[in-house]
Amino acid sequence: MVDWSGGNDTGPTPRKDAIWACVVRDETPAEPVYLRNRALAEDWLADLIEAETSAGRRLFLGFDFSFGYPCGFARALTGSDNPRTLWDWFEARIEDAPKANNRFDLAGEINRRFGGRGPFWANGLKRDIDGLPRRKDTYHNPFPDRRVVEHLAKGSFTCWQMAGAGAVGSQVMMGLPVLTRLRRRFAGQVAVWPYEALDKPVAFVEIWPSLTLGAAPEGRIKDAWQVEQVALDLAHLPPEELARQLDVGAAEEGWILGVKQNRPDIAPPPLRNDCFALPAGVNWTPVDDALALLRDRLGPVTGVETVPLGQALGRVLAQDAVAKRSNPPQPNTAVDGYGFAGTIPEGEHVMPLVDGRTAAGIPFDGTVPDGYALRVLTGAALPEGVETVILEEDVTVQENQIAFRGPLKRGANTRKAGEDVMVGEIALTAGRRLTPADLALLSAVGLSEVRAHHPLRVAVVSTGDELVEPGQAAGPGQIFDANRPMLLAMADCFGFDTADMGRIPDDRAALRAALDAAADKADVILTSGGASAGDEDHVSALLQEAGALQEWRIALKPGRPLALGMWNGTPVFGLPGNPVAAMVCTLIFARPAMGLMAGEGWQEPQGFDVPAAFEKRKKPGRREYLRARVRDGRAEVFASEGSGRISGLSWAEGLVEIGDEERHIRPGDPVRFIPYGSFGL
């Protein structure tokens, strides 16, 4: 086991934060070796490999730095996804002497290729370096901040940090060239895990001791103790367990031995039990205050997984999607016509034609000489010697030459490489719910999979003795359950997975069992009815019994009462039983809150100011939402504001929002119309 260092020579006296190594043979450790610089370490490693292979022994070599970078970086820098190409790239450019090296300058050079503010950060030198920010507050990373394995490995550091505590970036940049030279020196004898099958005498494996080991015993240097303990642990590992740990696939980014790859996702921390608590003394809550509380106190509750692009429609990106390839990948023609070099001045021109043509997917194999033209078809890559294209409609062709009139600017009728998206740029940002157009973009920039949140799971419960299922016989005082099908359909339209928990009578034990089952199946629970403080309001009573009830009396119409709480760690939105109020409260409060929990951030519905086609007087003190639709450019509202008129929800195509202040609206006055589509319906 080798504990690496990216810094300069550490002197003759053994010390921490240096290079340490330990060999275990026959389950017996040798004395840990102090290696004061990388030149000595490389020689020591070469001697070790020579000795072990000459003796006919196999050698398992563990190193504590990343063997790969986050997805997309290798291709952006080298044109290849192969991490060993990236190793060669660094080895050709790193200059390393015991007392000085060029790692910070190289990091700055790389950053300048991607805009000059990332992916690397932290400059450990006194002099400034163009493109390498000293602190992360001025930093912009066009690639994921961490590899997939680093999301799973608690305490791991990002490979982009070049200086300061946890500066893994320097270790990686200074370690990969050493491993590259050793692989070259012992060609055919070294396999790198997990990129290659371990069928060679020597295996290079990434291991991070500090992820599994605590503090060193008193009087021992931590790095020396850790390499000894890791080597011993590996030596004692049963072969079948070692095989299981080595059985991972991470073709580009690499992996850390010991981190389980079969974890289905990255679990976010649970919400606090008091996350819905109102500030002391608050009774009536204005709508904006209620929304601000939800926005500030909620966060993602869904795990993360890698999803093939073909299955990613509607999923929420968990990390930025970085282009692996420019779009377009090379300069190409936007029209059918003829291509040549340079700018064409005003006047008549005649050019001889080169034999052949360039077409989409069938490029011209050769160079077009200056003063000659080539037949080009739309979407074709421009060959060497072609910068400008003239439309075929503007050309006369005769006897292997073309005639046309200028002027024509250089680059006319062509597309530049990367004019849409450049390799290494962020194509889509985390939090985006993927659309069909997004899948086209991600495909175009070379992505075949994305890191996405699991769909938010929403359980829906209807409560009340008065409810019966549509199609059943309704007795006196009974009504058909309208809320449950509505809420399930709304959650489905929002892009969430749903769990129908059925209708629960006004029975506290039955409701408790339903909430228990819902909490097991879902990330959030929507209930309708039973959310006030009456004798049969069992949702409120059970949340109160669980010590997690917050009754929000919100200053809005319709839907004043909103019961919020936690049940077995799962958030509960206790909606009013009236369908109109239940729908409005879901759209205004539950929809943005659930979006936040789903990982897509807080989504403000997009509204539009349109002239009113109605008259209304409104008192101050609460916000109102009227069922509305737009006809002939004017907002109409439903004839009745009664909350029992469910037909108004179907008649409407959105809501008119009227603010908290007093208002007298007359026909023609501007009002804010929010289409249902702005909420995702």
Low-confidence stretches: none
End-to-end Cα distance, whole Å, is 57 Å
- What's the main sheet like? 7 strands, mixed
Silhouette? flat
> What is the helical fraction, as a range of percent?
10-25%
- What percent strand? 15-25%
* Rg value: 33 Å
Report the structural category.
alpha/beta
Q: Count of DSSP helices? A: 15
Q: What's the number of extended β-strand segments? A: 39
List keywords for this structure.
single chain, 681 residues, alpha/beta, 15 helices, 39 strands
Show the helix and strand layout.
Layout: E1 2-3, E2 19-21, E3 24-25, E4 28-29, E5 33-35, H1 38-54, E6 59-63, H2 73-78, H3 83-93, E7 96-97, E8 100-101, H4 103-113, H5 148-152, H6 168-185, E9 190-192, E10 202-206, H7 222-236, H8 239-246, E11 284-285, H9 287-297, E12 304-308, E13 321-322, E14 332-333, E15 337-340, E16 344-358, E17 373-376, E18 388-391, E19 396-398, E20 401-408, E21 414-415, E22 426-428, H10 436-444, E23 449-453, E24 457-463, E25 467-468, E26 479-480, H11 483-493, E27 497-504, H12 508-521, E28 524-528, H13 538-545, E29 549-554, E30 556-557, E31 561-567, E32 570-575, H14 579-597, E33 608-611, E34 616-618, E35 623-631, E36 634-637, H15 647-651, E37 654-658, E38 663-665, E39 670-675
Parallel strand pairs: 6-10, 9-10, 11-29, 16-17, 24-27, 24-28, 25-26, 28-32, 30-35
Antiparallel strand pairs: 1-2, 2-5, 3-4, 7-8, 12-23, 13-22, 14-21, 15-17, 15-18, 16-20, 19-20, 29-31, 31-32, 33-39, 34-38, 35-36, 35-37, 37-39
Helix pairs in contact: 1-6, 3-6, 9-14, 11-14
